[in-house]
Write a structure and sequence with these properties.
Helix content is about 30%, strand content about 30%. It is globular and about 45 Å long. A 5-stranded mixed β-barrel has the order 3-4-5-8-7. It has a two-stranded antiparallel sheet with strand order 1-2. Strands 6-10 form a two-stranded antiparallel ribbon. It is built from 4 helices and 10 strands, in the order ββββββαβββαβαα. By secondary structure, the protein is α+β, with helices and mostly antiparallel strands. A hairpin with a 2-residue loop joins β4 and β5 (about 35-40). The protein has a single domain, classed as OB fold (Dihydrolipoamide Acetyltransferase, E2P), CATH 2.40.50. The model is unreliable at about 1-10 and about 155-165 (pLDDT under 50).
């Protein structure tokens, strides 16, 4: 028997078991006999191979791997992934990554101001405190990093990206 919990804070939530953390902002979750790929809403963490990518993945893994999480679906992306707010042990992982300087608020996709405004404030605090990726002078957002990979231009020769990004 599956129980769906509806609460004013969560809207429509479901629960699933995280059996794989793909990177800082992507999980594989089992619910019943089905597997879902879940992308964390409103944020973008460094990619695999990008500076701080491993730290972001470890952070998410410590909070979600082999745990039952609460999922509030906000959207489905172009790859068919569920885009969601993910809570583990009462904490919103999306926001915790931003607070700890391991993700950016993703301006192109973070549109729910009740969620995004507090995360933007958390990002400013993390920048000011030089937490996580904000220790670097000019960290490269993942969406720009991915764009440079698609264009085939190495970051070190791209004028928009300043040294010492990949130390």
């Amino acid at each position: 028997m599956t129980i769906t919990i509806i609460s004013p804070r969560c809207g429509w939530c479901w629960h699933g078991y995280v059996f794989k953390v793909l990177d800082g902002d992507s999980l594989r979750v089992k619910k019943g006999g089905k597997v879902y790929e879940v992308r964390l809403y409103g944020i973008d963490s460094p990619e695999y191979g990008q500076r701080y990518g491993d730290q972001a993945k470890r952070f998410t893994k410590a909070r979600a791997y082999k745990k039952t999480v609460s999922i509030e679906q906000k959207d489905t992306d172009s790859y068919g992934r569920i885009v969601a707010l993910v809570k583990s042990e009462g904490r919103l992982i999306n926001r915790e990554l931003v607070k700890n300087g391991l993700a950016w608020v993703y301006p192109q996709y973070c549109r729910d101001q009740k969620i995004c405004n507090p995360m933007e404030k958390d990002e400013k605090k993390a920048r000011k405190a030089k937490r996580g990726l904000w220790k670097d002078k000019d960290p490269l957002p993942p969406w720009k990093w991915r764009q440079s990979k698609r264009e085939g231009s190495p970051l070190r020769f791209h004028r928009e990206y300043r040294f010492p990004y990949w130390r």
